[in-house]
């Protein structure tokens, strides 16, 4: 049965009148499971206008009442957790356990939004000068927008709109057209949580819808997660139109393995962090730098990765699912071929992998290269597939230089038993998120997701305190009151005035 995906505009669920119809396909067999009519210009403009109107009343709602909406929402998300994960798995191809993790990491941010009152507190100094006090308020911006990717259709939207709305803004969400059913369910539950009409809008579409959001004067801030080229376009276009922009772009995350590390822990963690989720996550460990004698572990790592088998979302034995689309598979396969042609040693080649009965799916088996150098395409480009590139370094200093020379700075990890090596690494490395014996160091929501360099364009990062600053403006008041103006109280009037 084919589902008709809907837009949510001005508190109404509509099919949309756009001329372009987008098919949503099951990555396991490329059969159509849903269709969506891309929003036309009038519908996107209507969503923005509705959000602008709703902002006038929503910004006046007491912060405690906004927090109660979030409390109700996080409860509903938990109640429907497995249902959302099932929808997500079917349209992304993720395994059910992976899909549940996607949903849960989003729920954690919705939980964090329940604490919005304390995060929006201003500052006060009494007597900054004689009889003069200064204090600040944190106030919402207006209409904000989010443009989200296919690989985390629950987590990334939940990074954005709960905090933005809890701050007193209204929000227009434009999710990936490749898996729009999960965001639709998120908005349905937000409506059920008691969000007033117009506070959140959901529009589906392509670049046409995005460009309207980027250029419309009533959109005050844009949040984006996606590829490098699109991230640069979002940032440049948005800022050219005088908007705040936080654009999370590409990554090439390195794991440095010291010879004193726990070998089995390294192997176990590298397998999941490199090929898990079919490598389709910006925090995947796609490069392993083995320092000194640690390179002797590569054959054992190969054996472990070779045992990994992709499969269907509801196959409990499947380690990961297909990549999202035929185009994504073709890109991964092409880069694998380039790696071979450029001289890397292909230890495992998943190019021809298929799942019985689902041969038309977007399958790529676990792939592993050794003797990769920094001038190779498989090193320079974000493959976004289940491909691990292995490199060698003689010293920790050499490994640090390799990582710091990368144009990206999203995440990195070091595995070591040495506190001194870990301290040196975390201090000298030019990457925003560092794991020490932790493979994927994504911080919990009371911190912020802090990619650096070419992995992020903007100033304030996602969720945590930085997101609150991104979605708000500070108003500072300096006040003087004169004691001579204090009125003298008169005696109480005990009679009834009959006039």
TrEMBL record:
InterPro entries: Ald_DH/histidinol_DH, Ald_DH_C, Ald_DH_CS_CYS, Ald_DH_N, Aldehyde_DH_dom, MeMal-semiAld_DH
Family: Belongs to the aldehyde dehydrogenase family.
One Pfam family from the record: Aldedh
Sorted UniProt keywords: NAD, Oxidoreductase
Family matches, as SUPFAM superfamilies: ALDH-like
EC numbers: 1.2.1.27
Keyword DNA-binding: no
Gene designation: ivdB
Domain Aldehyde dehydrogenase: 13-477
Family matches, as NCBIfam families: MMSDH (TIGR01722)
Major enzyme class: oxidoreductase
Protein name: methylmalonate-semialdehyde dehydrogenase (CoA acylating)
